[in-house]
Records
---
Amino acid sequence: MAIKLVREREPGPGTLGKPELYALAIGQGIESRKFEQYGIPVKRGAIGQVIGAGVITLVVPAIKMTGYSAWLAYFAAIIMGFFMILPTVFVSSTVRLGGGNYSMLAGLAGPNISGIYAFMYLTQCLSLSLFGSSAAAYLGDIIPALSSHGARIVIGAALLTFFYVINLMGIDVMASAQKLMTWLLIAALLLFTIFGLAKMKLPIFDFSDPEFLTQGWGINFSDGQISGGFVGAMLLFVYSTQGYYMTTAYGGSSKNAKRDIPFVLLMCVPTLCVLYVGVAMAGVGSTTLAEYGESTTLVVAAQNLFPTVLFYFFIIGGPIMALLSTLNSSFAYNSITIGTACDDGWLPKTFGKKNAKGGRVWILTYMYIIGMIPILFGLSITTITNMVQLIGACYAFLNFKAYISLPKLYPDAWAKSKYHVPNGLYYFLCCVSLAGFCVTLWKSCLSMSPILVGINITAIVVLAILGFVRGKKGNVEIHTSIWCGDPEGDAKAAEIMAASMNKK
């Protein structure tokens, strides 16, 4: 057999409780020493999601797509995004995942699926360009001399280069600063929301106002591509409403993963509603479409709302901090995921080689090159977002296989889950999740040029085939890290998985 499964022994309780997991879900970094005991090979990095990067990036483009109703579109996107990641709530309440999505696919969908995922994940690095380009757009709106198209390309490339070098050298300083940046970001977003709602001058709750729905409730097309409409804006927003599902990656470090992680996932929904919908209300209620002009950022709205000192606090503590901290942590997180695939043998071990500082030199260099391509070609923020959405939607088909396998592989643990629902309802919700990703895939394809769509899909298909072939031919040793809390239940699941592999 080309693939060898090595079942890792379940570690003891970790150090992360509900408060720490919630902080991670909404963006706070975590020092990698908590991961090293579980075999994740980084040196004092900062790993985490950052709340705010999505809202900072997408609010103004969405306002231009639908008008005053942008806040409602964001609320609808949060609800849609929740149903798209809902199966992870059920999975995380049933089994403990030591390595997030990769562990889930290897343990539930099968080793071959995890290999396909490992290769497809190589496209995820495109998201780096989104944060670099967005930060350049904000700087361009603040400093007129940096507002030209060429200047923004240079700034985006420079920022990407800076954080590439930082990650090569080790990111001790940024790891320490990540927590501070997160709380500065949340403070800035709340400040913007409070000031915006207090100074709201536009009828954003008047459904009859002509500016409430500038392009109707549905989706508008221009030259065969999605250009506006309420649903069009909602589907654009969905990108920024699902990142908290990555909290499952901290299962190995949790005190009680099956209790705390699903609870935190559910708590993220009202948090997003307060912060994201609040920011959207403030952005659309304080500034007219004409005032935004050609800008794609919240700078114009911030200038309308704040005195000079608070304006610069918001810009630095909010947009700039959100985008730059996300750019930094994305380098770290993505290199860990790809590095794990190298360690297991899916990708060449030399590709995962580390330097003296613990940085994955070749992986980081690859990420840097891929992230630089959209910047150098001058792709818009919306186009880059659609590219990343398309990639994420393709992962959903792999995740679906894992979701529907859960009740079969872990029937007893699933029956005892706090969030257990009848199997029929569970499978229906899994289908709803997949349908949501299919819609975003369709939307992404219709929001880009056919050539760009073709390039992205071709790359994904080729990488998926390479992953499949590697599983058939290569010597791969997967260290599985999925546990139900019952050694007998884990053993039975392993037997079922081995039997299915032997049939193939």
---
Amino acid sequence: MAKVIGIDLGTTNSCMAFYENGKAKIIENKENQKTTPSIVAFDKDGKKLVGELAKRQQSMNPKRTISSIKREMGQNYHVEIDGKQLSPQLISSMILQKLKTDAEAYLQEEVTQAVITVPAYFNDAQRQATKDAGRIAGLEVLRIINEPTAAALAYGLENAYGQKVMVFDLGGGTFDVSIIEIGSGVIEVLSTAGDNHLGGDDFNKAISDYVLDTFSRQEGIDLRKDQIALSRILEASEQAKIELSSQSSTIINLPFIYQDVNGPKNLEITLTRQKMNELTKQMQQIMHPRAVLVAYECETTDYSTPRSYLELRPVNEKGRMGAGIPVTYEFMNSLVESYTESMSGIPHGRIPRNMLLCDSRKGRERYIWYNPPQKRKMYFQDGLHITDGTFNVPGVIYVVERECMDIHAFKGAIPEERTELYLAPFFNVTGADVCLGNSSLKKPQDMDFHEFQEYWEKRFWMSEFSHLGGDRNPTRSNLVSVTEHARNNPFDYSELQQSGKKLKDILT
């Protein structure tokens, strides 16, 4: 009987195993390594490289190298290579194909079936995208298993009885914390929280930004515009992070990082563990609920029908609940009205993780969410002399109130309350106010939150950009040149202009 393999399809590295003699056994790849970099690249001739081969040439060929694609699973996202639009499912299937081939070489038999793990908070679209990737790779995906459940099974916890366990999983690109309950051979995920845009990659980015800023101050040279230098710094930043896990300081040394008329420039920066903690402090802060609704019952003295109570309790920064406050009829009526089925046009269902504020009260509708930096298809009227295409854009925060939309830019991948906001570097935006112009997209009457976000994002991105808002550039230099530069290069964050606001200012 052919073996079924288990696959941990990771953001930065992937791993596979099979079950033998009552234990899980790791399958080594063709490079005799237990993990395979989740990286796909294409050389100048269009030849596909996967895993270690792709990682080795990443610094020399960054524009044709794709990493951390797991973060985009289930999203409307594509990577353009040689004029072809590659979906996250297709790119992930290339990684899975290599894993399948390597497993067959290791096991000396054909592999057709697999179980693949995903973060516990992955939604249905992300889970389906993972299954699709397996199917494209020629694998029958028997099950999609939550990563914390797989971890518990790997440790043999299914044989335990009557206990609750916390699984803390900080990976290369995703993070989740799950509370699982074990009993009678059954493992159940009780609660989960996390972020699919937080992981080791973000720690690497924080270090590399510090290195880039330090070099810029010392030499007056912005290496962000040099893709090869940027890739070398990212690689060195990852190595520095690893070294600082066992020592208090390390030296980032990159000779010949740049060359000008005066000759080659070397980069040498000492990084301490204390400094790294300062650089990553922002990522270590977790947003917490400010209040909870508590429902409970109290038996009456005559043991008749129990009395039901509902109260509102504040939550402090340590997660501790304060004294209960009786819930008013006005509050309950407002809550009920927000979720009544007769109110068409109000989004419903599970709130996406990128939603920062959600107020669906009738007459007060207000929604705020964000997109991390990504590539976007943009359309332009002829007068701007910009050809339609795909462009790199910074992180974007959307604010929708009734039928109006504001938009802001931010630096980084995940905004916090203290995050600085910048003028959105796009046409048709005055300050933050979006001129939707010729957008004629029909709003669905019934939609969940994901569909709601998609509708409003399409109204912005699929409209033709035609003019400057307020007849002035939202960027430090000409917006046309900034936009054209972002067509084939990372967005130049030095062009952003501060709006004078922070995220907390628009959340209140």
---
Amino acid sequence: MAQINIGLSKSLYTRGLQCEKSLWLKKYKPAVLTPPDEQLKAVFETGNLVGDKACELFPEGKEVPYEGKNHAKNIELTQKLLSEGVKNIYEATFEYDGILVLIDIFHQKEDGSFEIYEVKSSTWHSNKSIEDINHYIHDASIQYYVLNGLGYNISDTYITLLNTDYVRGPKLDIWQLFSHIKVSEEVLELQGRIPSILESFRETLADTENEPNTDIGWHCNNPYECNAHEYCWKTQREIPDYSVFNIFQLNKNAKSMQLYRKGITAVEDIPEDFKLTEIQQLNIDVWKYKKSIINKEAIKEFIDTLSYPIHHFDFETLNPAIPKFSGMSSYEKFPFQYSLHIEHKDGKLQHIPRLVMPGQDPREVIAKRMTEDIPQGSCMMAYNSSFEMGVIKKLATLYPAYAKHLMSLHDNFIDLQTLFKNRNYFTPEMQGKSGLKTVLPIVAPDMEKAYSELDMVKHGGDAMNIYKKLEEASDLEEISRYKSSLLAYCELDTLAMVKILGELRKII
């Protein structure tokens, strides 16, 4: 068989390592792949932002601008820059053996040898090891393969990651922001495997008509969630929306795969003698027999712990890859908004919205407002309260003047989700989930469309993206819409708790 030009890129190579069927689909049947949603697009944007920032570590460099599929032009420009003696090239482009690679940072040392820097928006800290970034080493290994094949002397290869040990001061120190993890030895060890891997890819891609019959399994989400998941799992294998994979965690030795290989995917078909934990059995029984669990005694005990006025509370936060403010590390969340519904014993309901507009550090503003809006020692209600408590504890650490007040709130949180997580209120429709957006339409059917009818912001990821857009916006109408959408979403999160609690009271 004649050797075909497989036309691979770095991303296609790593896709093929995860699953050759996924590679085939990307090349020949891309229409079945799920397009990136707004959250995934935000991840890509973050990657670009981090990549640009890392380039500042290697000043006076030149970038090879992306020209779409005109790779020949990019390769030609790379060679031109090298001939001109440019020591730092960003997105340097090379092709060898049917493989196209773009090197994030290609650095030439004084002795004429080169270094490869593969930049990722993931994090590194002092407790991590090389094993934690194995999947990135494959990215670097194929780059080395191409460059070595072209005759370049590569002295070292690095994975460049965000250093979460670094805490930003008043000014950002990019030399502390990044960690360069040397993976030269690991990359060299992989070189011997690459020719056989490429040959396997060639064999798979040689048949342009028949897709590989690769079964589903743990590899579908390892190391990345594959965008062929919907096609392979739902369309081809007809895995139910609520299946054995929801009951058991998917991994190499999971019980879910044991059942799947026996032809069992539906929850109701799990054999009676299959070994289960108590909570797994409960999940199955509720689904199988369509019986709801409503533990009135546990619900009453929960409600009896509450004292009025109840302060239903919810933060919205942002976690930028590059720390924005002093005292922050990479991906550390900071609050920019909260909603507070104050529920009084007589049924009176008061709403206080707070949103700090971009352009300033919102943390101290938020801390101060909380101490003004909520008396010390108040009964605090949240859904998944550990999130709110974590944010408050950080604010207390940053601003000692408000620490006593804030910690008195921190110590008085009651988590509404615990009733549902502990299966004291559990229905088949919940499908084992206990998130707010799952629970609300079940407990309060009149709120079924509440989130779907919101404008622009329908979940926390949307809130993050819209706040970032708000920061960049200049059109007054656009700013107003962004602001209104953020306020409406956060308000609904706390109103939902009020509604759920109201319905629970009716039960007892």
